[in-house]
Amino acid sequence: MVQKISFEEARERLMKRNLKATPQRVVIYEALVNMNNHPTAEMIYEHIHSNNPSISLATVYKTLDTFVDSKLADKVLSDHGVTRYDGYTDTHNHLYCTNTEELIDYEDEELVKMLEQYFESKRISNFKIHDIRLQVLGEKIDVRQQVELSK
Ligand SMILES: [Zn+2]
Fold it and tell me: 67 alpha carbon to ligand 1 midpoint, in Å?
């Protein structure tokens, strides 16, 4: 989901989760949400560095962990095992393009319900399910290619 939030809104969301809204945290959270590309910690660091040279990469990592603990962000693993972060925490699935390494939100309530019901009916023994996330691997096809393929 494409979201754009202001610094003020980022601050409010932190406070709602009972996190101290330090300027560093707000800057990192605002970047995570507004980058909209499931960034890695390094990508966030690069993004904010010129305006916030005092924020270290270690701080970015630590802060992202705090967000995950407070349910303000989710960790998403890419196909290569690289940890990426998602500022959009409603249940949703992802399409992963193996060419561009893009993670694209795939929102489909019907699919979410179907997966939940499926696993409920399976009653896997000795395992309690918290969340089901699907990552569909493939490659993005641009409109031009699509026309070619349909010929
Ligand atoms: Zn996502």
Answer: 15
Supply the pTM of this predicted model.
0.85
CA of 151 to the centre of ligand 1 (A): 33
CB atoms within 10 A of CB 46: 14
The domain limits of the chain are 1-89, 90-151
- Confidence (pLDDT) at 151: 65
How far is ligand 1, taken at its centre, from the CA of residue 75, in Å? 9
pLDDT over 80 at 2, yes or no: no
Q: Which residue has the higher pLDDT, 82 or 63?
A: 63
Strand segments, DSSP code E, in 4-118 are 74-77, 83-86, 93-97, 103-106
* CATH assignment, 90-151: 3.30.1490
Distance from residue 150's CA to the centre of ligand 1 (Å)? 30
